[in-house]
Amino acid sequence: MWVYSLSLRNLEEMMAERGIDVDHSSVHRWVIKPVPLLEKAFHQHRRAVGRSWRVDETYVKVKGQLKYLYRAVDKEGNTVDFLLRAHRDKAAAFRYFSKAIDQNGEPTTITVDMSGANLAALEALSAERATPIKVRQNKYLNNIVEVRHEVAYRSCSPFSPH
Known about the structure:
Elements: H1 8-17, H2 24-32, H3 34-44, E1 52-62, E2 65-74, E3 79-85, H4 90-104, E4 109-112, H5 116-127, E5 134-137, H6 143-156
Parallel strand pairs: 1-4, 4-5
Antiparallel strand pairs: 1-2, 2-3
C-alpha cells in the first residue's frame, strides 16, 4: 500500500497508477470550481447565532510558530466564528470582527477581555455603522471562551489523559 501526501501532483500519480491519464492542473480546476458552491450550501444550512458575543484570542503553535486564534461564542456557547492571524493588533482584530459580522450579522453586544487592540478595532468598526455595537470590557465574562480554548488545547495535546 502506498502512502501519499495530499498534493495535486500525488493525485495525478495515483490516477496514473490506475490507468487514468490526467494532469494535476485539471485536478486543481475540478477542485476550484465546486468549492464556492459547497461553501455557499454549507452557509445556508448553518444555524443562527445569538446577538451577544464573547470574544477572546489565544495563541497556538502552527508549524513551530506562534499564531493568534481569535474566537467568538454566543451566549449559549455556540461558536460564532474564528480566525487565525500572525499578529495580535488592531488590524488583525478589525479584520476578525468585520469577517464575523459579515458572515453572522451584527451583534448587539460584544464582550472582550482587557485587550486594547480589540477595543480599538470595535470602536473603529462601530464608528462606520449607523447603530453602534455595545462593547463590554470585562476579564471574567469571557470565561466561557477561555474554557473552550482550554478544552480544545487538551484534546489535541500529546499529554491529554485519554
